[in-house]
Design brief:
The protein is of the alpha/beta class. It has three domains: about 5-175, Thiolase/Chalcone synthase (Peroxisomal Thiolase, Chain A, domain 1), CATH 3.40.47.10; about 180-190 and about 240-349, Peroxisomal Thiolase, Chain A, domain 1 (3-Layer(aba) Sandwich); about 205-235, no CATH class. The protein has helices spanning about 30-40, 55-65, 90-100, 115-130, 155-160, 220, 225-230, 240-260, 280-290, 300-305, 310-320, and strands at about 5-10, 15-20, 40-45, 75-80, 105-110, 135-140, 165-175, 180-185, 195, 240, 270-275, 330-335, 340-349. The protein has a five-stranded mixed sheet with strand order 1-7-6-4-5, with helices on both faces. A four-stranded mixed sheet has the order 8-13-12-11, with helices on both faces. β4 (about 75-80), α3 and β5 form a beta-alpha-beta unit. α2 (about 55-65) packs across α3 and α8 packs parallel to α9 (about 280-290).
């Protein structure tokens, strides 16, 4: 059974840089406050009308396809991970297929939030291993800026997120010491609502989400989207930051160790850990927990913010472009996000 290898990788981030100080125009915050809690200095925001989640994914895909030495016509499967789709439906995968003028191939959209790219990579890996497909395009792309609450009320969430996309081409390899060694996926829905975007949705408050507690308007629980929801800012993401942090610092190192131990390795064997860029403080905690050196961990949240499903492929691509990942290196990808979901992938570059 062949393994799958990353044959080409690409990334795309918008030109527009938005610093912490730029956010002062919209909310009561400070550069010091944001950096102390998240490590973020700046992030990229897509053009409001000319760039979408799909178009950014397409730009990253073009680079990955070229670097893999193939054409768009050679791609036989698309897996697109995002929580910010262009449309409620259809998904972004078919928009990529259409824009790149590909054949009538399968396109799958993955909704696993911050863990989305690693989940998508795992799905693609299984199809490669079984011989079903030979050139799989895996994309992680997000346009968060279009749906954030840029006010003091929403600052705890809005200062964190940025826009961007990353993509890889996965191909089979018979090389014994190359490719994806294993992937590991987990979820626990017990606390699903503490990091969520409730509306628009079909729940009609079935789950008793706590952010409705102070409102009496029946529209809030009866409608898919209502004026009351908008007036009360119920159409923005909600996050209980401290609770998310507590869970992440437990599950992040667990899933990394799971991948290493499944393949007979220890943290000291790692050449590079690419964590999901959720919060620099989380990444630093994980690094300390696993006793990793600075040169074994790659972080770029300082400059891009949290791009959820795009953060792992963007960081992986940038690390490779900067010469920090070389052929034969042992690389671990890991992510933790809403759901909760968490995942890891261990590979030989």
């Amino acid at each position: 059974m062949p393994r799958s290898k990353i044959a080409g990788i690409g990334m795309y981030v918008p030109e527009k840089i938005f610093t912490n100080n730029d956010l002062l125009k919209y909310m009561d915050t400070s550069d010091e406050w944001i950096q102390e809690r998240t490590g973020i200095k700046e992030r990229r925001y897509a053009h409001r009308t000319e760039e979408t989640t799909a178009t950014m994914g397409i730009e990253a895909a073009k680079i990955a396809i070229e670097r893999a030495g193939i054409t768009a016509q050679d791609v036989d499967f698309i897996v697109f991970a995002t929580i910010c789709p262009d449309y409620y439906f259809p998904g972004c995968g078919v928009l990529v297929q259409r824009e790149l003028k590909m054949k009538e191939i399968a396109a799958l959209d993955v909704r696993n939030q911050c863990s989305g790219f690693v989940y998508a990579l795992s799905v693609a890996d299984q199809f490669i291993r079984t011989g079903t497909y030979k050139n799989i395009l895996v994309i992680g792309s997000e346009k968060h800026s279009f749906g954030l609450d840029f006010s003091t009320r929403g600052r705890n969430v809005s200062v964190i997120f940025g826009d961007g996309a990353g993509a890889v081409i996965l191909q089979p390899t018979e090389e014994a010491d190359r490719g994806i060694l294993s992937t590991h996926l987990h979820s626990d829905g017990e606390s699903a609502e503490i990091l969520a975007m409730y509306n628009p949705g079909t729940h009609a408050n079935h789950w008793g989400t706590k952010n409705y507690a102070d409102f009496d308007d029946a529209e809030i629980s009866d409608m898919f989207m209502s004026h009351a929801m908008i007036d009360n800012s119920q159409n923005y993401p909600f996050m209980d930051g401290p609770s998310v942090f507590k869970k992440a610092v437990v599950k992040f190192p667990e899933v990394i160790l799971e991948a290493l131990h499944a393949n007979g390795y220890e943290p000291s064997d790692l050449n590079m850990l690419i964590p999901h860029q959720a919060n620099l403080r989380i990444a630093q905690f994980v690094q300390q927990k696993l006793k990793l050196r600075d040169d074994q961990v790659y972080n770029n949240i300082q400059y891009y913010g949290n791009t959820t499903a795009a953060s792992v492929p963007i960081a992986l691509c940038e690390a490779w472009q900067n010469g920090k990942i070389k052929e034969g290196d042992l690389v671990c990808l890991a992510a933790f996000g809403s759901g909760f979901t968490w995942a890891s992938a261990l590979l030989k570059w």
